[in-house]
Write a structure and sequence with these properties.
This protein is of the alpha+beta class. It folds into 3 domains: about 5-185, FAS1 domain (Roll); about 195-225 and about 260-440, FAS1 domain (Roll); about 445-590 and about 615-690, Jelly Rolls. About 20% of the residues lie in helices and about 20% in strands. It has 16 helices and 34 strands. Strands 20, 23, 25, 26, 27 and 32 form a 6-stranded antiparallel β-sheet that branches. Strands 1-6-7-2-3 form a 5-stranded mixed β-sheet. Strands 18-34-24-31-28 form a 5-stranded antiparallel β-sheet. The longest helix is centred in the middle third of the chain and has 15 residues, at about 285-295. The radius of gyration is 27 Å and the shape is globular. The relative contact order is 0.10.
Length: about 700
Amino acid sequence: MTLLDRFKIWMGASLVVVGTAFTVSCGDDMTDDSYYTFTGEMLSDYLQNPEHDFTQFAEIVKRAGKMDLFSAYGTYTCLAPTDSAVSLFLEEHGYASVDDIPTEICDTIVCTSVFANGVYSTVDFSGITSTSAPNMLNNYLQVDEVMDDVDEYGDTIYTYRFNESGSIILQMANDSVENGMVHPVDEVIMASAGELPDLMAKDSTVSIYSLALRSCGIDRKLRLLKDPSWNWDEHVDRENLYHSDNHDNWCHVPEERRYGFIAFMVPDSIVREKLGLDATADNSTALEKLYEYAVSHYTDNLTKKYASTAEGMADLEDEHNPLNRMMCYHLLPFNTTREMLTTICTLDTRLVNPVEWYRTMDEMSTLKMETLKLRSTYDNSDTKMNDLFINRNYNDGTSETQKMRGARVSTMSGIKNAAANGRYFYIDDIIAYDDETKEKVFNTRIRVDLYNLFPELFSNNIRKQDTWTYYASTDKTKGIPGENFIFPIGYLDNVDMNADGDFIYQGARNWYWSYEGDEFNLRSDNNSYDITFRLPNVPTGTYQVRMGFCLIPSRGIGQFYLDGKPQGIPLDMRSNDDTWATKYGWKALSSYSASQSEEKEAMKKNLHNQGWYHGPLSVFSMAGSGHKDGQLSSKGDIFSNQHRTIRRVIASNYTLSEEKIHTMRIKSVLALGGAELMIDYIEIVPKSVYGVDTDGKGEDDY
């Protein structure tokens, strides 16, 4: 449990912090100064108190217009530069006093130094390479553990340095104020670099890929920071206490609409080796070879063909140019940390690897992210536990002809690869949405948590991995904001919705009956919601489309459509008693088993014929203590063993084309009294997986 979690428990109606220790080195005995102090002041009072050492930083806060904010209740962690640290900053930048610092720079200094989403002590910075939450600029800070001192026993004491600039002064750290915590730092912490293309252009390690992005004009697409038209004040009246099942959730409207990007960059050395170029070949030659490589891999109807390399090289900015498409396939349209690209929340990692599917900036393509947890998917010579791969298809059950190694994502993080609007990672192979990828990687059940469809959830820090969150207070000035959100019309791209409907996101909790802990709900006070959103693109073929959700008596009834056409009868999500299981012949599966008895296999097929599938065997919800993420406890609920966590077939034998945008529409049939329709995850399953005959091997239960 993090300090933030403990803080929420201790705080109650008023914040009280007493006698909680923090550790600055392993194995040391606790000393008198290893305890949190409590000042009884608000953050604003603390910074302005002449007994402390922050008078110049307080003036910077005033000039940034943030002092009133820091006088209100909330949860702030401030990495406050001391007076000497500010004096050093003034000298280095040629300012005579704080009054000479431009207002916008004052704002950047303050927002870089403050986390407005929780209270973090020094122990929360231990063992990490970047902060687990963003600062007020919505950026994550690089964290380096550096030597501070040696104790009387000769053991090294470490402190924490941020963005290769300010370090925490341990002797003064962990001062608790009424609305947060203060850590003095010895330098003004520098903000992350400006825009992502500029940061990558400075890295000589990836000069060929940077040149390709510029030559294709893609770098201009990576400069968006924030939607200036989004005005929270116009939508704040949507914030409210919404009833969900047997509890109430306070739902927030996002305060900003920030953009973000992730780039997967192949180092020059790997590109040259892949293309057969020696060190004497210049980058323009490498660019031509990279274009030729793209031509050989993009042969579908979407890719514009050229009569010669010279013709193609002269039209790289065309979105159908093969090199343009391949470079866009290396880009994701959101910003988050490497750790957030997959999650173990609710997954039994003894049975499955965490896998996610994301649409790339090559609009009609999707890539697979997989973190290796199972020993059947990695070996000591090539891969190891926790390696992150793009487009990998490799385990004990995969035939040699279907295996694909994929590209490994580096572990680099922090200011070195993080810009104001995104970050980049090295990968060890060129990736492409080519025939080999489509045939090997996508010939599987594609399970997509709904949050993956909306990049805004990542770039605006709405999607989190804190799986022990508590319900947010109805008073926005208290508690931990941001756990549940309601999205006004226009906030999410590729979503159309009527004005009467509410589209609500409930943040990840490992004790929810929800895949990966979070869920979306449709509701309406007027018995009328109607939403349409874009589905992930998959290779052209015949598929079964399913929806995973949880049966609850307070749910509603909705009609589903694909590409505007109604699919079957309306789906009733209200059932939750044994009569539902009896009606359809549902029975629990055998726990942890990849195969079931003949009787249960027959039961499964009967269920499938009626359009239902058990919940996944590899997914569980926490139900009591004795639980840890990634491993089911004896008190957990396995989704396959309770009929309420079920999957419904929306359409079978349905043709999807990689050249078209496909949509799902959900329209209310019964939503009286705010009855919800839950949308948890979508499965898009090729016929090669679901369409086996009676003698064939059926789809696995994971």
